């Protein structure tokens, strides 16, 4: 047992202790973390707007990593990864594939949250042989209803957060009910559990590039999702303001092999608010 990294044998046991590593491919040095057992199909997590490695809920990561190898990474130009951030979801998907292949992986499961779920849909369409199963959370299809409003909402809630001295995610990810507010505070506290080797915050340039990519995705023509033949788990909160929940229903209806979970009294961050249920359902889905 190596105490520095909470290691069992070679496997890192907790996200809080997972060292940040790098791999270079396609002219980009990608920062990533890798934990859980080294056997089986790994689950690659693709993250949301403005997020770096430290924005993943450790309860969700650790819960999945109890049974699967989990890999998180910073996309190009974000956090500790080098290069400049693309202004389209399609380019971000290419970067994610470059990163996955750089680790020598030939088959993965992908969990994409929010913007990450958009990237995951493109990967499944462009590189179907790479993807075994997909988990799409808090996300929507190209041209999905209300997605083009993410920029306006993000700006609005960032200003709101500044005036109330809160984190914008309290407004963007959670409902304003007592349960939602409490869940938001607990989630934000969990994000601070890691105290050493924390990632760099996203730059404003990278943030605006991501906003542009999401806006374009919201304005894009709908894609033929019937070509995604992999099993898909779709999950969201019932009151998602960022990517309206009807997009989750739309995804589940248009994908040929999809299960849908909608959490009550929850918003965009429903999987973090209901992390215990989500982890159990995700593990069940991956084991099927």
TrEMBL record:
<dbReference type="GO" id="GO:0016787">
    <property type="term" value="F:hydrolase activity"/>
</dbReference>
<keyword id="KW-0378">Hydrolase</keyword>
<dbReference type="Pfam" id="PF00561">
    <property type="entry name" value="Abhydrolase_1"/>
</dbReference>
<dbReference type="InterPro" id="IPR029058">
    <property type="entry name" value="AB_hydrolase_fold"/>
</dbReference>
<dbReference type="InterPro" id="IPR050471">
    <property type="entry name" value="AB_hydrolase"/>
</dbReference>
<dbReference type="InterPro" id="IPR000073">
    <property type="entry name" value="AB_hydrolase_1"/>
</dbReference>
<feature type="domain" description="AB hydrolase-1">
    <location>
        <begin position="42"/>
        <end position="272"/>
    </location>
</feature>
<protein>
    <submittedName>
        <fullName>Alpha/beta hydrolase</fullName>
    </submittedName>
</protein>
